Amino acid sequence: MGYLEPAPMVGSMSLTAVCTCLLTSSCCPRYTRTALYMSLASTSSPIWQSVLGAWFLLGVPMVIYAGIGAAFRVESHLTKYILYLLGTLGVVVGWGVVFIKYGNSCITIQSDTPSNYGITQSTPSLVCGVASVMVIFWVVAAACTLLGATYIAWSMKAYIRSRTETELLRYQEPWQVAQVLAQDLAQEKARLMEEASKRS
Fold this sequence. Notes:
200 residues; mainly alpha; two-stranded antiparallel ribbon; 78% helix
């Protein structure tokens, strides 16, 4: 399948169980999305906030749709869910780029001035830097989580595809047995007819 092989099992759990846990956890609100949304709310217009909220609201039926696909082994349902996950990854990366380029949690940065004891005071810039690093960390964590979820969903899709092929082979075997029996019966009948024609 190329460079990346599907995961047959994750730990001692089957891929179906992992996919079910993933889909169940996707129904819960994600703190990463909320933190990212709240940190960038001041830098985006209400239209983009509504679009972002609608995109994540679309995730609830997509998770249900993918859960039905995983439970009943429907590959097309997981394909749509993978596309949604990749779109969500694009949204997270896009917001990360917007935050890096335009966002800053501090409006003013205090210049380094010596205090009474000769120590420079740069606490506000340190606090602002830590807050910005935390937002970037959560953006990277959300992107890694989405990549992991996409990999698990893709593995489930590959499992369904291989399972469908093996089930088709299983249904093919009785027909092959019937064909072989019919050929044996036809050969036996032809042999008996040939013997009968030689006697007469």
